[in-house]
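This follows on from our talk about sequence and fold. Please put the record directly below this note.
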Amino acid sequence: MGDLSTAATRDRIIDAAMELFSEHGYRGTSITRIEEAAGLSPGAGGIYHHFPSKEALLTAGVQRQLSRLAALRDIRRLFADLGDLHTELTLAARYVLAELDQEAQLLRLLASEARHGPRILTDAVVQVVDLTYREFAEWIIDRSGSVVSTQQADAIATIGLGALISARLLPNLLGTAHSKVDDHSIVETWVSALEHLLTTAKPNLSAGTDTHPCRGRLRSGDVLDGSRYEP
């Protein structure tokens, strides 16, 4: 029973700390304020029974978020090859928007503190942002049957994820009102745009490959069914 109670208290402290860190910044949040928000006696130092320092508390909070994201990435792989590009893109768009909403707290913290805060925040940027872009670009290459080059995939991933992040940037990071465009319209437009980019991508032509102009544009079916373009 004691272990359960300790775990519950620890989680409550992390919850309170991450909320305060996202609202006031890591440096702008005191241990006393965290204790008060977590239901501990302010200034009594009870937090140190669970975490040796404020940075250790931040590390625990960020790692908890990153572990949850890693698990969800595994879940996403289950529907990553449904055989229908439109469906896969729709699920991907809805996943990204949902994750941006779920991780708004962490994103606010990273936006304000990542450049000058503890190392764990720099590492979190890699996990949350860089890895997401890289995974999406790799999915694009795999889904096209390697027709799309690495550079093309990076560009499409940047445009695609950038658009979704922008749809959430103002409301989640800056606290402004939500966009007047509803999620259904955003997803439909995004899927249509990404389908166009993927189905009209020029093939990844290596040195010595036939570059006949009539073969410079990929047929829609070549990407949609995942087959490799063969000039």
